[in-house]
Amino acid sequence: MTKKLMLMAGLLGLDALLAPLARAAGGKASDLVVVADTRVLDSEILLYFANLYNTNIVLFAVWTVVLTAAYGCLLGVVMDKLMALTGLDLTSRKIVEH
Amino acid sequence: MELMADSSWLYMYMPIAGVHIFWPGLVLIGFSVGVIGGFFGMGGAWMVTPGLNILGFPMAFAIGTDIAHIAGKSMVSTMRHSKFGNVDYKLGVVMLAGTMVGIEIGAQLVMWLERLGQVGPVVRWVYVGFLAFIAWMVFYDYAKAVSNKRKGLSGQHGTEGVTWYKALHRINIPPMIHFRASGFTCSAWLPIMVSLVTGILAGFLGIGGGLLRMPALVYLIGCPTHVAVGTDLFEVMISGLYGAFTYTLKGRIEIVAVFVMLTGAAIGAQIGTVATKYSKGYGIRLAFGAAVLCCMLSIILKQVGYTQSAAALILTTIGVICLYIMKIMFVGAARELREKKAGTQIG
Questions:
Q1: Which one, B113, B166, B188, B291, has the greatest CB density within 10 A?
Q2: Interface pTM, i.e. ipTM
Q3: What does the alpha-carbon distance between residue B17 and residue B61 come to, in Å, rounded to a whole number?
Q4: How does pLDDT run across A25-52, given as a tens digit for each residue?
Q5: Do B340 and A87 touch (CB under 8 A)?
Q6: Distance CA B341, CA B347 (A)
Q7: Stretch 161-220 of chain B: residues touching chain A, C-beta under 8 Å
Q8: What does the pLDDT look like over A78-92, one tens digit per residue?
Q9: How far apart are CA B224 and CA B221, in angstroms?
Q10: What are the chain B neighbours of A85 within 8 Å (beta carbons)?
Q11: Is B114 on the interface with A (CB under 8 A)?
């Protein structure tokens, strides 16, 4: 029993000694956790996404991919309509290498 | 007048990175890379990152933001190229498997080198070596094409220089697949192996891969330049969406910046894509070779400690190539509209 207590005390002592050293050494940049500061946000939408980033990164990642794809598609369709107004032929081209 | 004096409206708050960024700068970067990417068929991450850095964007967020914006931008470009018939979806899908597996193998290779403590210099010098090889190949190909033209040698789409793909098309390992948009039949193993190798290199070098895949599609698989550009953008779109997902999981993305850049990129992508219609294949290849050469020089400058000169070189390259492509587009479009008008009057 005494041995176990001494071992535990030893481990706690070692932990107490190493913890400040580990903190002082810091982590690798890739291990750092970035938190969005939601205190300064007024917009409801931005607040929602910043909160999601802080609390549920997987859902945030899904939203990012879906929104990027949706916005890309929307812009593609809108630009297509605008380009059609120029009167250029946008459906055919000749392939000439040299 | 007050609005002019107070320039705060030109700065947008990035909710995740927690910084105010000059948003017209983001639109301009998106626009320029949209023009170049739509013309060359690549994502252009190597051009975006230094630009974001100069705008004061935290580096931790630059790569993820860049990849997500590239995915969206490639979508706009792919849609436009698709209308021209420049996207070989069958070839793109066949190559996707090789690309994804290759990227993973390349990433594992980097981790192995990391354990040996050799990753930084090895990756950079391998990158420089490949860029030098691609630039040499493009210019050698051009010189050979000029020589062949003088001799009166001409192929299906005009004179060509390097035709390594002809030898590779003779490989007769089933299944043989006909790629209609590209206009050739070859063993399915050819695009799979090429995409695997370019994927390994992309994963190893930590890049999107458009820079390697576009010349590989032309010289090894045998796509006409225009189809190579469109098909590569399709690949960039898929791998970009996957990259956006994984980088977001690591928390390395600023979604507001993605949307601002994408708005500029959508306009730029139209210009770059439509410009391919007015350019011959070798016009695209030569400009691509020049871009690759500048990319290589910037990496060498960075390697020897001239970081600011490297960023200046990249930004100058973006500006010059962007103006060159815009000139092709506007001159070509004006000529087409003039000819159309003249045709209508005669009719």
A1: B291
A2: 0.84
A3: 7
A4: 444 445 556 788 888 888 899 999 999 9
A5: yes
A6: 10
A7: none
A8: 999 999 999 898 888
A9: 9
A10: none
A11: no
